[in-house]
Design goal:
The complex is a heterodimer of chains A (about 260) and B (about 300). Chain A has helices at about 15-35, 50-55, 65-75, 80-90, 100-105, 230-245, and strands at about 5-10, 40-50, 60, 95, 105-110, 120-125, 140, 155-160, 165, 185-190, 210-215, 220. Chain A has about 260 residues and is α/β, with parallel strands linked by helices. Chain A has one domain (about 5-130, about 165-190, about 210-245): 3-Layer(aba) Sandwich (Rossmann fold). In chain A, strands 2-1-3-4-12-11-10 form a 7-stranded mixed sheet. A 3-stranded mixed sheet of chain A has the order 5-6-9. In chain A, strands 7-8 form a two-stranded antiparallel sheet. Mean pLDDT of chain A is about 90; it is low at about 175-180 and about 200-205. Mean pLDDT of chain B is about 95; it is low at about 5-10. The chains are: A alpha/beta (about 260), B alpha/beta (about 300). Chain A: It holds the Pfam family SNO. Chain A: It catalyses: L-glutamine + H2O = L-glutamate + NH4(+). Chain A: Keywords: Glutamine amidotransferase, Hydrolase, Lyase. Chain A: Its EC number is 3.5.1.2.
Chain lengths: ~260, ~300
Amino acid sequence: MPQNLTVGVLALQGGVVEHLNLLRKAAAHIQSSSPESLEGLELAFTEVRTTAQLTQCSALIIPGGESTTMAIVARRLGLLDPLREFVKVQHKPVWGTCAGLVMLAEQASATKQGGQELVGGLDVKVLRNRYGTQMQSFVAGLDLGFLGQGEEPFRAVFIRAPIVEEVNIAAEGGGCLEQGGKGPPVEVLAVYHGGEGQKQAGEGNGKGDIVAVRQGNVFGTSFHPELTNDVRIHVWWLRQVLDAARHGKLVVNGV
Amino acid sequence: MAANLHPATNGTGNDDFTVKAGLAQMLKGGVIMDVTTAAEARIAEEAGAVAVMALERIPSDIRKMGGVARMSNPEMIQEIQKAVTIPVMAKARIGHVVECQILEALGVDYVDESEVLTPADDQFHVLKSDFKIPFVCGCRNLGEALRRIKEGAAMIRTKGEAGTGDIVEAVKHIRTVNAEIARAKAALVAGGDLGIAALAREIGCDTALLKQTAELGRLPVVNFAAGGVATPADAALMMHLGCDGVFVGSGIFKDAETPEVAAKRARAIVKATTQYTDKQALIEASIEHGVAMKGISNADLKPEEKMSGRGW
């Protein structure tokens, strides 16, 4: 009996179908290149709108969209606490893109008046709309070392994108470092160096902008791999999900 | 939700278009609200709107006041930009290249080349591919949608009949688009490239875009509902018919006695749009929404009073 491994995409609003399609392509890629990693596992991909649907999932993507809208809708649906439980207590693999990265941060700046609610899980502070309005949205080639040596740059699509402005912040109540004080540190996985010219005078520090981070089970990107046909990041992430399942680090449904 | 959108979707395959169409993709499943002040924009943002459309008068008031409707005062748009963190859109007159340039320079996030304003050019729409800023345009049928996409529009909406609170025209327009997409699929199956070319001649659109539409089984860009959405049930109906999201013009702030009434209506329409298949949520949203705008029956409008006939 194969075990069911369900990967959800939070479907409150935003680029949901795009992620589901790339996840299916990624699964097909893994099936053809290394079928052994899927042995004994039955992969399924699904939209998540309710707590019951979330409970069925072994891993989750929070897509791009409007983070203020997602937070408001999640609050009304009673999904915020179940999401926090999923990310920070059950430690299931979660990936947020753009608005999803904002949702997974412990802190955010440049939020709407009165602030906005977050799920958290990454001990980082994000800066929303870092590059400005849609006029400053762009596509840039990024070298992503985590995809392996000698890989072609990834055509990263940044749309009103946030960046990570601080890592390993001491979160107030609920941060991964706070809980037990020995959570994994935040790894910076990608930096964008082209943004200096777009910064306001005096802001540039020559270090570039942090646009991808990982901390334990939580992964976040400023940009939208789901707006490309490039399956590499989805394959990379899905392999980690499969790996976690194989090593018993995941509660897999049907076991 | 409908099938995937091609990542770069007007046949150009370029990064600029991916960025333009991509923002619309991030708005899917959401509500874009017409607002006339910074305070209204804040109400929309707090209710969960994915974007606001800044304009001087809501369509129902444009209808009532008559005269020439133009691009909004830039000062008012700037105040709205300062008040909210969600995307801000603004309307330009059909064919008014300079209004579009002004809105681009203001740094709004999307321009709506809109039939709700009085057209500035009776021959040409704006060549939208010349701009860095993305455009949304209205349509009544597939040919019109694909003509706008060919000109560079990165998002489409039904025209409906703005400012009436009567959903019938918006329903007609999305049904027409859906039926013509079904025809395009059938034409591709039956006649291949020649079948597509014949249909493209008939409905007056670009052959390559029509083929792409037939292959995708949907418009190659995001398609929202607009023009007559007055209640949560109207919004849910348009989602049910396959729209990717909803513009609400007059339905929220028209005749709202207090900001609280407007806020309740705004919340209710967001709820109905994001949970359009959940009957219990639709009951709750309908109760929260309360009395809708009185509206004008589309059947009572004289042809010259209709906005949807503007553009081609």
